[in-house]
Write a structure and sequence with these properties.
Layout (H helix, E strand, L loop, with lengths): L7 E4 L15 E4 L5 E7 L4 E6 L4 E7 L9 E6 L8 E3 L3 E2 L5 E8 L3 E11 L7 E5 L7 E6 L4 E8 L8 E7 L1
Antiparallel strand pairs: 1-2, 3-4, 4-5, 6-14, 7-13, 8-13, 9-12, 9-14, 10-11, 10-13
Length: 174
């Protein structure tokens, strides 16, 4: 096993992206004996200073910018089959700071008309922006939607004629 000393990991608020990324509400931790956190010393100039867990400055280096590599967040996944007219609703997921929601849906039965919905919200209550798609039986439907909200949820409604025997749905934000 390689020596993990010096590796850095991004730790998010409650396992999610921070709701207010302008506040730089995230920390970096090293795998060695010195846990380090990143704190924003000048939000207007996007300057970042590295401090230890107690808040003591442990480096004289201040970076002009902090770039956090965007990563994928799973928005929904399901292989559970739906009854006639059945509905799958994925959990609300924080997609703030990401660019696209991509995925595909496959079912051996057609969806309801516009039965696949990629829903987005700014407040996790009002799903003001929705893009819909219709899934054809036994044909994978890929989709890609621009992120415009802070939260996303996927909803799939099976068609009214026949229960599914096969269902595969996946969506990631990146």
């Amino acid at each position: 096993m390689p020596d993990p000393q010096g590796l850095v990991a991004l730790v998010l608020e409650d396992g999610q992206l921070p709701t207010d990324t302008s506040a730089r509400a995230f920390r970096f931790l090293t795998v060695d004996a010195n846990g380090v956190a990143v704190s924003d010393t000048d939000a207007a100039a996007s300057k970042v200073t590295i401090v230890d867990a107690g808040g003591t400055n442990i480096t004289d280096t201040t970076f002009n910018t902090l770039t956090v590599k965007k990563f994928a967040v799973q928005v929904a996944t399901s292989t559970d089959t739906l009854d006639t007219g059945g509905v799958f609703t994925g959990a609300s997921v924080n997609v703030s700071g990401l660019e696209r929601i991509v995925g595909y849906a496959f079912s051996d039965q057609p969806s309801a008309a516009s039965g696949l919905s990629v829903r987005q919200s700014l407040n996790d209550t009002n799903w003001d922006y929705t893009e819909t798609f219709s899934v054809v039986a036994s044909t994978a439907l890929p989709f890609s939607v621009e992120v415009v909200g802070d939260r996303a949820s996927i909803q799939y409604t099976n068609g009214a004629d026949t229960a599914q025997d096969t269902m595969r749905l996946i969506a990631n934000a990146r």
